[in-house]
Fold:
Amino acid sequence: MVAAGDERGGAPVDATSTDMELFQPERLVTRPFLFLALEAERPLGGGARFGLTGTDEVLIGRGPRRQGTRARSGGKTQLTVTVNSAFLSSSHARLHEEPEGWTIEDLGSRNGVFVNGQQVTRAVLSPGDVVALGRVFFLVEFHEVPEGSEANPSVSDVDVEDVKGETPGLLTLLPGLASRIERLLFEARRSTVVTVVGETGTGKEVLARAIHHLSGRSGPYVAINCGSIPRELIQSELFGNVRGAFSGATGSTGYVRDAHQGTLLLDEIVASPPEVQVALLRVLQEKVVMPVGSTRGQPVDVRFVAAAQRPLEEAVAAGGFRKDLQGRLEAFVFELPPLRERVEDLGILVGSCLVAAGVTENDAPRLSAEAALRLLGHDWPLNVRELAHAVERSWARAKGGVIDESELPKPKPAAVESVGIKDQIVAHLRTTRGNVAETARRMGRARPLVHRWIKRFGIDPDSFRS
Structure:
């Protein structure tokens, strides 16, 4: 589901054993979902997700509003998905499961059915395939969900329009990411130190701000780049100084005390020099700072959030990062996936980028079909930051509210599959006990691509989980 923000105020609280029982590990199973990834005629609308478990067929067509309804007839379960788009026919396409996989069929539509830019009358879909029905773009993807949750597929249905007003950075259609965000919401109201790990541009600072917003803390949000603090000014920058403590010292509070009763983001924590690490470890342990030139410690109440581009354990193994500091910072670790692994969220992210650029419904923004395909087909190596810049540039040049493809990157050609890829997947699934996301990470491949290979080679991830 889409994670929702807790707007209650008040001071952070500590976790209890009863609370933690809510988040015990669950057995995961891989299940299919239909994602409405993007509406080109209404990019501010975000996207939607529909569970396909137990569904015999899906009918997609034009209707008064975007919605999914289920009905059972003749012993079959039918999901009807409607979208209010002039480019959709009332009965546009049929999606159903066959032995070779989920299949899309054109039902005689006016504007046709396209898979990865090629018009088809019938096609078997692989994970990662982009299905264009008029100006509405769909994906069929497989995701891990807790065993038993798929028994009622309607519970898996989520429409972003039903949850507008969410805290920025906490909106997703990916079931696994939504589950982790739910746990993050639980931790946000506590004093737990949180470490956010993700590639550059994935939104680590946006998430840190969301944690502060949800924490209920009355103090400010403060962010520092740990790798940019001059070594000779570390103590003063972090903890402040008293007037006359050294030449030019006029008296300051320092970053830590500036964040008193609030949140301090320790950005690029892995790049921090040894002196910064020692200083941070002391304040994390003692919750007291010693301003330069003072003989009395100052107690502080600060919620620490660290951000890193790679797991802290890798930095420790590579040398240069303290193991004891890692232990203090990893009370709760949250991994942000790169954009190439969350294409299903592209509609949400494009809408957020447009809103950030000042675009409203009154501007009637739209995407050309080619622009939508480029957005969905690019691998976005610089992640959401790159997407935001591309959307902003494109909107600045939009004519009549239509964003075309001129300012958007062209999709890269698919990489050639290497020999022995099936053996690699099987080996990784065996060592990760069927964890597809971890298998993709270890292979250095996007998760949808690994899912596509799994389907092509007939591999069953569930068989490795026993």
User: Anything to note?
Assistant: The chain has 14 helices and 22 strands. The mean pLDDT is 87. The longest helix spans residues 175-188.
